Amino acid sequence: MSSNDLLVDKCQVCETYFAVTSSADLQRRLNAHELEQHGKVNPSRVDHTATNHR
Fold first, then answer.
1. What's the pLDDT score for residue 49?
2. Which residues does the annotated region (Disordered) include (predicted)?
3. How far apart are the first and last CA of the chain?
4. Where do the structural domains in the chain lie, given as residue ranges?
5. What is the β-pairing status of strands 7-10 and 17-20?
């Protein structure tokens, strides 16, 4: 993988997309997003309620 390649993933709960250049950065950003927005890492749609959706 070259430094110009993009990795793209999305949050399984709210479908926020992330585009980064390294797999480590992708995991860090996804974990940080899940903790901040959903209260835990690897949340499911069952965990997600309309009251804590921003």
1. 52
2. 34-54
3. 35
4. 7-46
5. antiparallel
Give strand pairing partners of 19.
Answer: 8
- What's the confidence (pLDDT) of residue 4? 79
Say how many residues make up the chain: 54
Give the burial string for 23-52 (b: 16+ CB within 10 Å, else e).
eeebeeebeebbeebbeeeebeeeebeeee
13, 5, 51: which is closest to 35 by C-alpha? 13
**What phi and psi values does residue 9 have, to the nearest 5 degrees?**
-145, 170
Cβ atoms 10, 17 nearer than 8 A: yes
Q: Chain centroid to CA 31: how far?
A: 6
The stretches in the chain having pLDDT less than 50 are 50, 53
